[in-house]
């Protein structure tokens, strides 16, 4: 009962955090490891749990996405599918001991990205537009990271878009959610085919994360975003320390 409670609360709060500021994976992944799932299946199950929330986020910016160049959009979505599958396959072939070793560093990397996202996006705004090859290579690298480890994906994508010359924040957020949904869908299918997802846990976590997302959308209008961001950063750093101690 305690394990069910821990995972349920983590999924609900992850939905809330993702709706307000992001960082839900900082809760779902550690919670699944805490209740006994091996790190790699826990990462896969966590990806399934937070997967549906990206779709609603993309729908919220549907008009901006539809106004974007259709050919460029298809290229981005295609690279997202490829990156999601590549990242998932990379996770599947990573030895459990190696993944357990790098998890705290991935958590720390994602937490620092989250903490300094404004500075990163401000810095990338001064970068020149990349050539098509560089643009596609950077997009593939970021989406592969997202397929391998979902934490901090939104911040990495926003930084990528800024570096590529995007300036419309609504379009950037819309594309961020759309690419997150597509690449997560590709990685989730790969994880399901590989049979490493704990389906029972994933199913009720998806429901609770969706409910949490609705609650978070309402709370976003009342709670200061800085408070929520501070909580995400605190949780991320805390989980980094815990996983460093475990490894």
Automatic annotation (TrEMBL):
This is Probable membrane transporter protein. It is found in: Cell membrane. Pfam families: TauE. InterPro entries: TM_pro_TauE-like, TSUP. PANTHER family: MEMBRANE TRANSPORTER PROTEIN YFCA-RELATED, TRANSMEMBRANE PROTEIN YFCA. It is a multi-pass membrane protein. The keyword Electron transport does not apply. Keywords: Cell membrane, Membrane, Transmembrane, Transmembrane helix, Transport. GO terms for cellular component: plasma membrane. The keyword Transmembrane applies. It comes from Epibacterium ulvae. Belongs to the 4-toluene sulfonate uptake permease (TSUP) (TC 2.A.102) family. The chain crosses the membrane at residues 43-62, 74-93, 99-116, 137-166, 178-198, 226-245.
